[in-house]
Design goal:
heterodimer; A: Beta-Lactamase; Beta-Lactamase; 5 domains; 6-stranded antiparallel beta sheet; flat; B: alpha/beta; Rossmann fold; 5-stranded parallel beta sheet; 5 strands; about 50% helix; about 20% strand; globular
C-alpha cells in the first residue's frame, strides 16, 4: 500500500484549511445537497466531501457512508490532492498495487472505484476533495466528470461564503458588543475616509451625517492621523486622538481599531468642557460619563504613560546627580592632595628656618651661657640691633630680658619685649648639640596693632548692639502706645455719643415735664386734658422706631398735602403734620379728625406729643446707657490691671464683640462685618492679649482698605483645635512679601507711620498661647487663620 | 416763601431727634429745622430746599460720619450757600483737628458731645440774629 505523499506547502495548506473553521462542524444541508447530486449524477453508492487534516481526513458531508473520518495514511483523497488540476480516478482498487491491500478496500466499505476532484481554494491550496466511491468497477463519462468538477467548485463557493458569513457575523457581534460598552458615537470609515457606518448619536450633528460621505465633510482631526496608514499597519496598539465637528460645537476623543481589512472602527466620547489633566492623577472616575469604559481606558493609558515618563525623568535626574557627585569627589581628592603638599612645604620651610637661621627674617641670637656671651646669629639681628652702634652683651641681656631664671630653666620661655618702639615676641630654645640657648625674636608690632584695633571695634559693636536693643524696646513701647491710642480714640467717641444723647434727652424730659406738662396743664381745662390723653393713647409710636429722617420727611410731606386738601382753613399744616408723624401715623388717619377740629387743637396735639416725648426720652436714655455700658465693659477685655499672664476661659464671641465695639468708629465709615462666630465657643487663654490680636488683624484690614472692606469672621473646630478665620476682600498682600509679614520691624508703611511690630506681636501672642497663625492672600481675598489648642495645658 | 432753614446732619438718629427737640423748644416754628443722616442725604435735602426758595443759614454737623466727613461737607457747601454758618458737633476733638482747621483757615464753631443746651442755643441765637 502506498501512503499519500505530503505536499510541499503542507503547513500553508493546513493554515488555509484552518481559516475556514470547517473541521468537526455540524452537517449543513447545502453541503449535503452536493453529495446527493454527485452520487446521483455519477451513479455511485458513496459520495463525500472530504477535508484533509494533518493526520486524518474528515467528511463534512457524506452519503452512503457512516464514518465521519479516517486516517490520512489510508485515504484515497490524500493522493487526490497531490494532483490539483485534475480528477484522480482509480478504476479498480483491487488491481491497483497502491491500494490493493488498503484496509478500506480489503474491508469496509470495500472500495473498488474511486474518483476525486480536489477542492482548491482561491490561493491555490488543496483543502480536500469531493469524491465518489463504489464497491464495483465503474467508468465516468465526459459529462459526469465535468459535473464532478463543477460540484467541486460549488463546494469551494459554499466554503468561501460560509467563511465570509462567519466573518460578518463576528464583526456584527463585535460591533454590538462595542456599542453596548461604549458611547453610541461610533464610526466605521474606510481607508479613503468614506463613512461606511455611524452610530445613532451622530444624527444630531449638522449637517446630518450620511453614509458614503467623507469623514472630513463633518469633522476636523486634531492630530496628524492617516486612516490609510492605520489600516496598513499591523500593530495592535490602539490609536487615541481628538477631533472636532466642522462647526466647532462638539469635540470628541476616540480610539481606533481595525474593523476589518478595509475599514477602521472609531469609538468616540464627546469631550465636554473638561480638560483631563493628569498632573496630579487625582481625577476621580466620577468625572467621566456613566459606562464610559473607553474614556476610562484612555485615561488609564495616559496615566500609565505619564507615570512612566515621570519615572524616566526621575531616573535621568538621579543619573545627573550621580555624575555631579563623582565630579565633586574627584575635585575633593585633588584639593586634598594640594593641601598635603602645602603642609609639607610649610613644614620644610619651618625646619629650614630653624636649621639655617641665616634665612630667618627675624633676629636670632645665640646665648653661650658658659661664657655668658650673646652672639648675633643672623643678619636680621644685626639689622635691627646694630643701627645705632653695636650693643654689648650686657646691653643685650637687658634688652632681651635674659634673667637668671631663664638661664637656669633651660626651657622654652616666651616673653614680649620692646625695643625702639617695636614689639617683639621672644622665644628661647635650648640647643643640646651646642649647649647653648637660642633666642628668637619675632616682630609682632603690627599684629599687636591689629589686635588693639580689633578689640576697639568689638567694643564699638557691642555698644551699637546695646543701642539697637534699646531702640527696639522703644519701638515696642511705641507700638503699645499706638494700640492704646487707637483704643482711646475709639472709646472717647463711643462714649461721648451716647452721653450726648442722654444729656439731650434728659434736658428734654426736664423741659417736657416741667414746662409742657405742669405749666401748660394750668392753661387747659380738664376736658382738654382728657382729650389730649385720649389723643396720646392713639399713638402708634412703635412704628417710628426705625424711621430714617428721609422717610420721616416723606411722611410729613404726605400728611401736609392731605391736610391741605381736607382742612383748607389751617395755615400751619406743617406743625400738625409733624405732630401726627410723631404720634406714629404715616397718613392722615380718620381717628385724628376729632382732634384737628378741636377748639384748642394746637395745644391738644402739643400736649399729647409731649406725653409721648417723655416716654421716648426715657427710652433714648435707656438705650444710650446700654451703649455706654457696653463700651465700658469692652474696656475690661483690654486691661485687667496687673494680671499680665492670666489664663482664663472666656467666651470668644463676647471677646470679639468688644473689639468690634471699640473699632466701631472706624468700621462705620464704610466697612461691613459679617460675624459667623457662634455664641457658645469658649477659649482657654489670655483674654487681653487675644483681644489685642483680633484688634490688630481687623485694624490692619481696615487700614489697608481705608475702612471700606468687608470682613468675615468664621469659627470651626477640628480634632483638638479651635480654628478662627478672618477673611477680608481688601487689597492683596504681594507674593514677594507675604512670607515676611510676621517678621519683627517689617512694615510697608512710610517711615514713622507704622512700627512693623503689629503682626509680629500677634504671632508672639498666638505662640505664647500655644497656637499658630497662617496667612493666605490673593486678588479676591486675604485670609488670616488662627489655630489654638482647645485644651491649653 | 422766604423762610430761613437750619439743617442738622448726624449719623445717629438719637442726636438728630434731640437737636430737633431742643430747637423746637427754644425757637418755636419761626424757622424750618430739617435733619439728614448723612452728608449725601444732606446734599439732596439742600437742593430740595433751595428749589422751594428756602435760605439755609446754619448747618449743624457731626464730624465723624460714614461717607463724607463733617468738615469736608461744610467745605463743599461754601460756594453753594454763601453766608452760611457752620457748627461742628463732635465726639472727639483733638489738638490735631484744631490745628488742621486753623491751617485751612476754616472757622467753625466747634461743640463737643455731650453738649450743653444753653450753650448751643446761645450760639444759634447769635447766628440767627446776625443774619437778620
Amino acid at each position: 500500500m502506498e501512503k499519500p505523499t505530503t505536499p510541499i506547502n503542507e503547513q500553508d495548506r493546513l493554515d488555509a484549511l484552518d481559516s475556514y473553521e470547517i473541521l468537526d462542524t455540524a452537517e449543513e444541508h447545502e453541503f449535503n445537497d452536493i453529495v446527493v447530486l454527485a452520487s446521483q449524477i455519477c451513479g455511485t453508492d458513496i459520495a463525500l466531501i472530504s477535508l484533509i487534516d494533518k493526520n486524518r481526513q474528515w467528511f463534512k458531508s457524506s452519503i452512503g457512508l457512516n464514518t465521519k473520518e479516517t486516517a490520512r495514511d489510508i485515504s484515497f483523497c490524500g493522493h487526490a490532492i497531490n494532483i490539483p488540476n485534475d480528477i484522480f480516478i482509480v478504476d479498480d482498487a483491487r488491481l491497483d498495487k497502491r491500494f490493493s491491500d488498503n484496509p478500506l478496500v480489503t474491508g469496509e466499505p470495500h472500495i473498488v472505484f474511486y474518483a476525486g476532484s480536489p477542492l482548491i481554494d482561491d490561493n491555490g491550496f488543496a483543502l480536500g476533495t469531493i469524491c465518489l466511491l463504489h464497491p464495483a468497477p465503474k467508468t465516468l463519462n465526459e459529462n459526469q466528470i465535468t459535473a464532478l468538477k463543477i460540484l467541486g467548485r460549488k463546494v469551494i463557493l459554499l466554503l468561501n461564503n460560509r467563511k465570509k458569513s462567519i466573518e460578518l457575523i463576528r464583526e456584527k457581534a463585535f460591533l454590538i458588543e462595542s456599542i453596548n460598552f461604549s458611547s453610541p458615537f461610533f464610526l466605521i470609515v474606510d481607508k479613503n475616509n468614506f463613512i461606511l457606518e455611524f452610530g445613532d448619536n451622530y444624527k444630531k450633528t449638522t449637517p446630518e451625517i450620511k453614509k458614503g460621505k467623507l469623514f472630513s465633510d463633518y469633522f476636523v482631526l486634531e492630530s496628524l492621523v492617516n486612516f490609510e496608514s492605520l489600516l496598513a499597519s499591523n500593530s495592535q496598539e490602539n490609536k487615541l486622538f481628538f477631533y472636532k465637528s466642522i462647526d466647532e460645537k462638539q469635540r470628541f476623543k476616540c480610539s481606533v481599531k481595525k474593523y476589518n481589512k478595509e475599514a477602521l472602527l472609531i469609538l468616540s466620547v464627546p469631550v465636554i468642557n473638561t480638560i483631563y489633566t493628569i498632573k496630579n492623577l487625582n481625577i476621580s472616575l466620577n468625572d467621566f460619563p456613566k459606562h464610559d469604559y473607553i474614556a476610562e481606558y484612555i485615561f488609564l493609558q495616559q496615566a500609565a504613560t505619564k507615570g512612566l515618563s515621570d519615572l524616566k525623568i526621575m531616573n535621568d535626574n538621579l543619573n545627573q546627580k550621580n555624575k555631579l557627585l563623582e565630579l565633586s569627589k574627584s575635585s575633593l581628592i585633588n584639593a586634598n592632595t594640594l593641601l598635603e603638599d602645602k603642609v609639607n612645604e610649610r613644614t620644610k620651610k619651618i625646619r629650614n628656618l630653624a636649621l639655617f637661621p641665616e634665612h630667618n627674617p627675624n633676629p636670632v641670637f645665640e646665648f653661650d651661657y658658659e661664657n655668658m656671651v650673646i652672639n648675633y646669629l643672623n643678619p636680621a639681628g644685626k639689622l635691627v640691633f646694630f643701627k645705632n652702634g653695636e650693643l654689648t652683651s650686657e646691653d643685650l641681656f637687658k634688652i632681651l630680658s635674659i634673667t637668671d631664671e631663664v638661664i637656669n630653666l633651660k626651657k622654652t620661655v616666651k616673653k614680649e619685649i620692646e625695643f625702639k618702639s617695636e614689639i617683639y615676641e621672644r622665644n628661647i630654645f635650648f640647643i643640646q648639640e651646642t649647649n647653648t640657648l637660642r633666642v628668637y625674636l619675632h616682630n609682632i608690632t603690627d599684629t599687636k596693632k591689629y589686635q588693639n584695633e580689633l578689640s576697639k571695634k568689638n567694643a564699638e559693636l557691642e555698644n551699637t548692639l546695646a543701642q539697637i536693643v534699646n531702640l527696639q524696646n522703644d519701638i515696642i513701647k511705641k507700638e503699645k502706645m499706638a494700640t492704646l491710642g487707637l483704643l482711646i480714640a475709639g472709646i472717647a467717641h463711643e462714649i461721648n455719643t451716647p452721653l450726648g444723647a442722654i444729656k439731650a434727652s434728659n434736658d428734654n424730659l426736664i423741659y417736657s415735664i416741667k414746662i409742657d406738662l405742669i405749666d401748660k396743664i394750668r392753661e387747659l381745662d380738664v376736658k382738654d386734658v382728657i382729650d389730649s390723653i385720649e389723643l396720646y393713647f392713639l399713638n402708634k409710636q412703635i412704628n417710628t422706631i426705625n424711621r430714617s429722617s428721609r422717610h420721616e420727611r416723606f411722611i410729613i410731606k404726605k400728611i401736609e398735602q392731605e391736610l391741605q386738601l381736607k382742612h383748607k382753613n389751617i395755615s400751619n399744616t406743617n406743625f400738625y403734620a409733624r405732630k401726627i408723624n410723631e404720634l406714629g401715623f404715616d397718613h392722615l388717619d380718620s381717628s385724628l379728625e376729632k382732634y384737628i377740629k378741636h377748639k384748642n387743637s394746637e395745644r391738644i396735639f402739643t400736649f399729647a406729643v409731649n406725653l409721648l416725648l417723655i416716654i421716648k426720652s426715657t427710652n433714648t436714655i435707656s438705650i444710650a446707657i446700654d451703649k455706654a455700658s457696653k463700651v465700658v465693659s469692652s474696656l475690661n477685655n483690654f486691661s485687667h490691671g496687673n494680671a499680665l499672664d492670666e489664663i482664663t476661659i472666656f467666651n470668644l464671641k463676647e471677646n470679639l464683640d468688644s473689639v468690634l465695639t471699640i473699632l466701631w468708629n472706624k468700621i462705620k465709615q464704610g466697612a461691613k462685618i459679617i460675624n459667623h462666630i457662634p455664641d457658645n465657643v469658649f477659649i482657654k487663654g489670655n483674654q487681653e492679649e487675644l483681644a489685642q490680636v483680633w484688634t490688630n488683624i481687623i485694624n490692619n484690614a481696615l487700614q489697608a482698605s481705608k475702612n471700606k472692606c468687608q470682613i468675615e469672621l468664621y469659627y470651626s473646630s477640628e480634632k483638638e483645635t479651635h480654628i478662627i478665620t478672618f477673611k477680608n476682600n481688601g487689597p492683596e498682600i504681594p507674593k514677594d512679601i507675604i512670607n515676611n509679614i510676621f517678621d519683627a520691624f517689617f512694615t510697608t508703611k512710610k517711615q514713622g507711620e507704622g512700627t512693623g511690630l503689629g503682626l509680629n506681636i500677634v504671632k508672639k501672642i498666638i505662640e505664647k498661647n500655644k497656637g499658630t497663625i497662617e496667612c493666605i492672600s490673593n486678588s479676591i481675598e486675604t485670609k488670616f487663620t488662627i489655630f489654638l489648642p482647645i485644651h491649653n495645658e | 416763601m422766604n423762610k430761613l432753614a437750619i439743617l442738622a446732619v448726624d449719623d445717629e438718629k438719637i442726636i438728630l431727634d434731640s437737636l430737633l427737640r431742643q430747637f423746637e423748644i427754644n425757637f418755636g416754628t419761626k424757622y424750618i429745622f430739617e435733619t439728614a443722616e448723612s452728608a449725601e442725604e444732606a446734599f439732596e435735602l439742600i437742593d430740595e430746599l433751595l428749589d422751594q426758595g428756602v435760605k439755609i443759614i446754619l448747618i449743624i454737623s457731626d464730624y465723624q460720619m460714614p461717607g463724607m466727613r463733617g468738615d469736608e461737607f461744610a467745605f463743599h457747601l461754601r460756594d453753594k450757600l454763601p453766608g452760611m454758618q457752620v457748627i461742628l458737633l463732635t465726639g472727639q476733638i483733638t489738638e490735631k483737628l484744631a490745628l488742621e482747621f486753623k491751617d485751612k483757615n476754616i472757622f467753625f464753631n466747634v461743640i463737643t458731645k455731650p453738649w450743653d443746651e444753653q450753650d448751643l442755643t446761645r450760639i444759634i441765637r447769635n447766628i440767627l440774629n446776625n443774619v437778620e
